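Recap for those who missed Tuesday's class. We walked through two folding examples back to back. For each one, the amino acid string is listed first and its predicted structure tokens come directly after. Nothing is annotated here on purpose, so try labeling regions yourself before you check the end of the notes.
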Amino acid sequence: MIHRSDLVAFCDDVLASSGSPDYAPNGLQVEGRERIAHIVTGVTACQELIDVAIDLRADAILVHHGFFWKNEPAPIVGMKYRRIAALIKHDINLIAYHLPLDRQPEFGNNAALADQLGLTERRLFGAQELAVAGTLPDSCTVDDLTARLTEVLGRPPLVVGPTNRPLRQIGLCTGGAQDYIGDAAALGLDAYISGEISERTTHVAREEGIVYFAAGHHATERDGVRLLGDRIASQFDVRVTFVDIDNPV
């Protein structure tokens, strides 16, 4: 069992969350019971994840996508009310980390995907240096990298751009980071991987001569929070359960 404040302090420290500009507050978002014995981790604090946590009698939910996003309506009504009311009724803490969980250099979302692809010679690029560029162990085809992404993420990516070129220098940033494709092209990378795709992304890929892989926002961001949960379980006497709520996006 761990005290809530100690859990949040540990996460703040390992994620270096202080002082980073973000789109939502990082750390404790909804207060529940002080003593935590069971944590449910997941990508997004949707109602389905909250319901599973209630069924499991969890004391806290730890997610990548929490609540109170910049520019969202402030009133706690409708869907937002139902989610928050369920947390408060069952005395469950909601803890969320967004960009700090993307950039964590050992087990964050970007580091985890780079590890799965075997990227070496890594360097950071893009706004806030969130994106990662690196070198594949060997040159491969678009079909090869498509197959590897399908294997590690459990879903085939959407691929646009010059699909007949060899790939070796790869950039990536998980989630909704498709607009870093311009930065990746400026670095002379062969391909760029993110989660989502916009209409404009296709034209950038074609005109800049860079292959773009839209590998799924949810699929590319499962590992950071799961690995953070593993780290917590290894450090404290607390049970951690990762729950994957399917999302095709």
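Example two. Treat it independently of the first, because the proteins are unrelated.
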Amino acid sequence: MVLPAPRSRAEEVVAYVEDSIEKRGLRPGDHIGTRADLREQTGVARATVNEAIRLLQERRRIVVRPGPGGGIFVAATDPVVRLGRTLLTVHGEPSAVAGAIEVREQLEPLVAAHAAQYRSAKDARELKSLITAMRKSLDDVTRFVSLNWDLHLRIAAISPNTVLRGTYVGLYEFVNQVSLVNSQSPDGDYLAQRLKVHSDLVDAIVAGDVTAARHAAEAHRHSG
């Protein structure tokens, strides 16, 4: 069952910024605007804009410069960023989503191992907080799936390997953007099973157990 995560408000702002860069023909180093500009243009709260900026920085789409003349600027495009764009050009191919899922799943044990090896105390707190939120959302499929997506992004963000991180996130975004939701909604038992798989994964990462993290990622891959 493939469940693309619905966009959060922050993801909507991310999409707005990326669309603006494209439509305005902005190049690396060009000024996009300020945080205040984004709040005014999108009508969202300060915290939402801040979260969107964090996501854009993680994906290396923007750089933020403080002080007079500062603001939000287009980041230099590197091969990892171009990979994400390239993936979106193949969405018309029938096997594209299946291929993206296959590659992404092969990367998951390595992503999990890196997370276990390099996680900080802050990483551990945020991962456990996401699991708690997922547990509280078992009766809300939309929120559960969105939190699941956030969790995988957060785990990937721990890896110091920018190529691995960028490729994995790019594949995840590709699948979420072009795949269709299964017509049959998952029931409570399915969500509870998914929660258990992800809880085991986070427990292994927080414990710093690389082997257990790999095994938990393999269990996640084979659990449907």
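Answers for example two:
The mean pLDDT is 83.
The CA atoms of residues 116 and 205 lie 4 Å apart.
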